[in-house]
Amino acid sequence: MTAPARVEYDDLDDLTHRLKLGTTPSELHGSLSGFLAGGGRVGRQPLLAVLHLDGEAPNPTVADAALLERLSRQAADQLADPDLGFEPMLPEDDRPLAERAEATVEWCRGFLGGFGLAGSESHARLSEEAQEVLRDLGTIASSHLDFGSEDEDEDALIEVHEFVRVGAMLLHAECASDPAAGNDTLH
């Protein structure tokens, strides 16, 4: 049996435009990742309903719904990957620095919203390190990034990306594995 095709940034970009979601691909992936990291579970309810996202377009087609299902499984699998394979979905490295930086800010904004939607009891018992990660993600989410030296800024963005990536996995490890966690009512 062949594994389903990996959902890529451009796939989500097309979807957000097609459905007129009013959100960016990075913010959508951040919302999903935050929801899952916060202990939420998608269940049988449509992903867009779980994340409280609706667009101006009609309901997603069967193909769009399948793409969202693959995205949900992919994010859940990556967050739980023991080899730390999770990656925030952001524009490719060949895109302009300013675009990638803004997408990182949007991803963090989405992550925090999704994390809050999970509404898990485990949030109250987060370690100091996890609380600090949330605070730092909040700082990134409210940032407007200015650029000076292209090389230094590229290095800084790489560091921020790695922090976001590892922070999401830390929060997932604390919340999603907690027996009290989980918004299972979505089934």
UniProtKB/TrEMBL annotation:
SUPFAM superfamilies in the record: YgfB-like
Record Gene3D superfamilies: YgfB uncharacterised protein family UPF0149, PF03695
Pfam hit, one: UPF0149
Recorded superkingdom: Bacteria
Entries under InterPro entries matching the protein: YgfB-like (IPR011978), YgfB-like_sf (IPR036255)
UniProt family annotation: Belongs to the UPF0149 family.
Protein's UniProt name: UPF0149 family protein
Species classification: Bacteria, Pseudomonadati, Pseudomonadota, Gammaproteobacteria, Lysobacterales
